[in-house]
């Protein structure tokens, strides 16, 4: 192994490349100029809750719309559809019990589609 002497120009440049040069300290007036160049924000804007209250109002409006959708459209449709299914089922059970008549739905897909169409027709 060979040892590197300090007189070698290669070792001096390698050693100096890892040295970070001193950065001169800036004066306080330079720092003040940097701060002055920043946009000023008043504390009243930071303290106001207008953004959060707007978001809250939008959230409440969205909830109200969902509630109206549920109560005005979805629940009546579901009630009519399920009510008709229950009515047909209970009517079939009554006819089988009281009059000894067998009720069979030959095509359940058409029966369900007709029930959905009837329930949606008057909405």
From TrEMBL:
Could you tell me which PANTHER family the record lists for this protein?
Answer: CHROMOSOME 1, WHOLE GENOME SHOTGUN SEQUENCE, MITOCHONDRIAL IMPORT PROTEIN 2
Region described as Disordered? 1-58
Bias type Low complexity, positions: 1-27, 37-47
Extract one GO BP annotation from the record: mitochondrial outer membrane translocase complex assembly
**N-terminal signal peptide:** none
Which superkingdom, per the lineage?
Answer: Eukaryota
By its UniProt entry, which InterPro entries does this protein fall under?
A: Mim2
Give a GO cellular-component term: mitochondrial outer membrane
Comp. bias (Acidic residues):
48-58
Q: What is this protein's record name?
A: Uncharacterized protein
